[in-house]
Here is the input.
Amino acid sequence: MTGVEEAVAGELRLLDPAVRTSRTQAARLLHPDFTEVGASGRRWGRDDMLAALPGMTGGDPGGPRHEVSGMTGVQLAPDVVHLTYETVMEGRRARRSSLWRRSPDGVWRLYHHQGTPVPQGTP
Here is the structure.
């Protein structure tokens, strides 16, 4: 699998409620230096995200799920991939950007993520 394919697979796993509710599974996918800038502008670190992820939208196995579209990736360097895509959850659309880094052990992990809400009516 290419780096882009590995990053896409990891990103989709992180959107899976079974992974979101499992600290162990999610921790395997988040880089030790993980950061996120959320829609509210809040900056998240790895430990904060792992603690909050099960209660975030999309974490309930029987509840609504993120609908993903347009996911594309570019390998920026041998060990860095940039993904962009959109999600829709309960009518709310967001544009998303993720940086994935390959660790020395060869595993691709999410290094940075940002989600930006898209106002209704925006193309």
